Amino acid sequence: MKIRYLLFNAYSVGGTIRTVINQANALAGEHDVELVSVFQTRDQPRFDLDPRVRLLTLAGLRGSGWRHPIRAWLGGRASRLVPPSEVRYASFNRLSDRGLVRYLRSLDGGVLVTTRPALNLLAARFASPSVIRVAQEHMYVRSHKPDLIDQIARWYPRLDAVVTLTDADAAEYAAILDGARTRLATIPNALTPAVRTPAAPNSKIIVAAGRLTRQKGFDLLVEAFAAVADKHPDWQLRIYGDGKERAKLQRLIHRLHLYNHVFLMGGTTTLEQELAKGAMFVLSSRSEGFGMVLIEAMAHALPVVSFDCPNGPAEIITGGRDGLLVPPQDVTGLTVAIESLIADPSLRNRLGTAAKESVARYYVDRIRGRWEQLFTELQEMKAPSRRSSAPVGP
């Protein structure tokens, strides 16, 4: 089966990039897989790519502008096709518009998986109906702005399927796309094969990870840890990730006199090794599409504490059995949950052991089978009415 994944930037670092590359790698053994990146910002992707996966870039902007004046001119002008309500709108441009439309109109048959709203919308508008068009939601639909949801309601009915990470989000899409023939499916992200060292039994390190943005709620976590550090000064918090909130978080750490307790560790491509150093993992997000880092931590037998934010944590964690769920943005509750794990090593061990067992349902072999089944069913549905008509215009 010919399967194509279309990413905003396969050369950067982030949860969507990592999980999409993992999917492409998992399918490469049995299928013809292509990874298409709209932009290219470095020579090689940061995450390992199976050599059987072909890598294609649509709108490279690297190199001197004076050598490529037309490319530079197009790259400096705002997109005409991406809705301004898309979070990444400012990063798209006329050059990416041209590259995307040319690519989408060139396709015939096979599967195309698009991985963010702008790309999903463009696939609906410009890819031929001969292509199985699958939109993959990596956040959740209600996290998008109302204008973007209006665009989703208008164009997604042209897609063959929308795949969400949680059942809750699938229900939201069902309401928005009411009456559309677009298939809705829930397929969570997969755990890839890795050597996962169990959590360090005597560690006094709390691990957190994610982009340093308001959504991830690291400001709430730092505030919660301030009370923890007062009672347990020998414990420390390590936050892995980069982002625009870094300076703000650093100021908060200094204001709360936590500079010897809380450390912004920067981005890493070796999170598995860092998780193994921890005594617990904490997710403090205001919202999540799923919470991939939760299942990665749980696979190390790390006890986890998480806000019960929309939409993913409650579908991953069974509170009190394999982790602790705290009401959304409840800083005091987060402090209490962390302190309960610090005070009770046997509770840490019990939750961690159960966590490792419960995430077996996310192993890549199981998740790969669900993707293959979906693609096969969509292919069978399209076969009787397969058309070779010209691509649909805007």
UniProtKB/TrEMBL annotation:
It holds the Pfam family Glycos_transf_1. Keywords: Transferase. SUPFAM superfamilies: UDP-Glycosyltransferase/glycogen phosphorylase. Residues 200-357 form the Glycosyl transferase family domain. The keyword Transferase applies. InterPro entries: Glyco_trans_1. This is Glycosyl transferase family 1 domain-containing protein. It comes from Microbispora corallina.
